[in-house]
Design brief:
Blueprint: H1 6-15, E1 40-42, H2 56-61, E2 69-71, E3 78-81, H3 92-106, E4 110-115, H4 122-125, E5 131-135, H5 141-148, H6 153-164, E6 168-175, H7 184-191, E7 196-201, H8 209-214, H9 217-220, H10 223-233, E8 239-240, H11 243-255, H12 258-262, E9 279-281
Parallel strand pairs: 3-4, 4-5, 5-6, 6-7, 7-8
Antiparallel strand pairs: 1-2, 2-9
């Protein structure tokens, strides 16, 4: 049994930087009463993958997926493309055009892209975006195919490496106990070549039947399991965790011991994800 140095974990949490993607997000603002994610431009809710944990396909099945367009404040400091679906379904040229239109409208604004990395063309995208977050939830070809439904592991890894030469690149990984926990060190080794490994705890949707068969719900609901995993992977890559979660962890540690934090259970189950920001326009 591996002994856990709780003092070192506390030090890790207290010194851990916020993810670059979370800078200027209300979720990292202690004064925000009802924080929302910074604005996003949604291109499509569709995706070429069939990930067993996907929330976007649940929203689409329930007719809750957002229509294409810009959502949120008209005075943005950062814009995400996109939180639903795969933005490169319609081609890299289309994404570049939208980025340029957003910069024409808003001026000096940070543009972050969330993508599965299978369809983007690094040569066309170049450094048009300030941050490119590429999802990678498996460390091998076989596991990638089991989780996503397609055989594109090598392509994604190749695009991660190519984008790291162009702009600030993040490997975005969901921690799914019982599914990919044995793959995380391999993922971290890949992520050691980029700026960040952004590790997120799984949100479980009961409609995702394949995930329900495989996920270890007991471990998924232990906050300590997630924190200790992030700490372990930080020896391999530049690990980050969601800024809103990190903010709440630090609040808790002001009043409580690290041991109490590691015993907390979280509700890992989510309801149908709904866009919380107002639609403004589309290009």
């Amino acid at each position: 049994m591996t002994l856990i140095n709780t003092a070192e974990i506390r030090k890790f949490l207290e010194s851990l930087p916020y993810p670059e993607h979370c800078i200027n997000c209300e979720g990292t603002d202690e004064k925000a009463e009802n924080p929302v994610h910074h604005p996003s431009y949604e291109i499509t809710p569709s995706c070429n993958l069939r990930c067993i944990f996907c929330y976007s396909k649940i929203a689409e099945l329930k007719n809750k997926a957002p229509k294409p367009g810009y959502y949120g404040s008209l005075n943005p400091k950062a814009i995400t493309i996109s939180q639903y679906g795969e933005p490169f379904v319609f081609g890299t040229e289309r994404v570049v055009k939208i980025i340029r239109r957003l910069r024409e409208k808003f001026g000096e604004v940070r543009i972050d892209i969330q993508t599965n990395g299978t369809l983007l063309d690094p040569e066309i995208l170049g450094n048009e975006a300030d941050i490119v977050m590429i999802s990678l939830n498996a460390g091998s070809r076989e596991s990638y195919r089991e989780i996503t439904g397609i055989d594109c592991f090598e392509k994604v890894v190749e695009n991660i490496m190519k984008m790291s030469e162009q702009t600030y690149t993040v490997v975005r990984t969901v921690f799914i106990p019982g599914v990919n926990d044995r793959e995380l060190e391999k993922i971290a080794e890949i992520a050691s070549n980029v700026e960040e490994l952004f590790l997120q705890p799984i949100s479980i949707y009961r409609e995702n039947s394949e995930l329900m068969k495989r996920v270890d719900v007991e471990r998924a609901e232990r906050l300590g399991e997630f924190i200790k995993t992030a700490y372990r992977l930080s020896e391999i890559a530049e690990v980050r965790i969601p800024g809103c979660l990190l903010l709440n962890i630090r609040w808790f540690l002001r009043e409580h011991d690290i041991g109490d934090l590691l015993l907390i259970r979280r509700d890992a189950f989510g309801s149908v994800p709904v866009m919380q920001r107002e639609w403004q326009f589309s290009f």
